[in-house]
Amino acid sequence: MKNRPVIPYSEEFYPPVPTKGTMFWRKFVPWQLLRFLVLNIKILRIVVGGHS
Q: What is the DSSP string of 10-23?
Protein backbone atom coordinates (compact mmCIF):
# COMPACT_ATOMS: atom_id res chain seq x y z
CA MET A 1 0.00 0.00 0.00
CA LYS A 2 1.32 3.37 -0.97
CA ASN A 3 1.48 6.06 1.71
CA ARG A 4 -0.29 9.26 0.88
CA PRO A 5 1.25 12.54 2.00
CA VAL A 6 -0.53 14.19 4.92
CA ILE A 7 -1.92 17.56 3.91
CA PRO A 8 -2.57 19.71 6.97
CA TYR A 9 -5.96 21.48 7.17
CA SER A 10 -7.39 19.42 4.32
CA GLU A 11 -11.11 18.74 4.13
CA GLU A 12 -10.83 15.17 5.43
CA PHE A 13 -9.77 16.42 8.88
CA TYR A 14 -12.94 18.45 9.47
CA PRO A 15 -16.19 16.91 10.75
CA PRO A 16 -19.09 16.54 8.31
CA VAL A 17 -21.50 19.47 8.18
CA PRO A 18 -25.16 18.56 8.79
CA THR A 19 -27.57 19.04 5.89
CA LYS A 20 -30.45 21.54 5.95
CA GLY A 21 -32.87 18.66 6.51
CA THR A 22 -30.90 17.40 9.50
CA MET A 23 -30.80 20.87 11.02
CA PHE A 24 -34.55 21.26 10.48
CA TRP A 25 -35.37 18.05 12.38
CA ARG A 26 -32.98 18.96 15.19
CA LYS A 27 -34.72 22.31 15.72
CA PHE A 28 -38.34 21.20 15.04
CA VAL A 29 -39.95 21.37 18.51
CA PRO A 30 -42.91 18.99 17.87
CA TRP A 31 -40.50 16.30 16.67
CA GLN A 32 -38.29 16.84 19.72
CA LEU A 33 -41.33 16.51 22.03
CA LEU A 34 -42.38 13.28 20.33
CA ARG A 35 -38.87 11.80 20.62
CA PHE A 36 -38.76 12.91 24.28
CA LEU A 37 -42.04 11.11 25.01
CA VAL A 38 -40.95 7.94 23.20
CA LEU A 39 -37.66 7.86 25.11
CA ASN A 40 -39.43 8.40 28.44
CA ILE A 41 -41.90 5.59 27.71
CA LYS A 42 -39.00 3.25 26.94
CA ILE A 43 -37.28 4.18 30.19
CA LEU A 44 -40.52 3.76 32.16
CA ARG A 45 -41.02 0.26 30.73
CA ILE A 46 -37.53 -0.72 31.86
CA VAL A 47 -37.95 0.74 35.35
CA VAL A 48 -41.45 -0.67 35.92
CA GLY A 49 -40.40 -4.04 34.54
CA GLY A 50 -37.50 -4.19 36.95
CA HIS A 51 -39.69 -3.55 39.98
CA SER A 52 -42.22 -6.32 39.42
A: -GGGSPPPPPHHHH
Rounded mean pLDDT, 6-27? 87
Calpha distance 47→52 (Å, rounded): 9
Are 18 and 26 a contacting pair, CB within 8 Å? yes
Compute φ and ψ for 14, nearest 5 degrees.
Answer: -100, 150
- pTM of structure: 0.61
Distance CA 22, CA 12 (A): 21
Exposure string for 22-45, b = 16+ CB within 10 A, e = fewer: eeeeeeeeeeeeeeeeeeeeeeee
Pair 17, 11: CB distance under 8 Å:
no
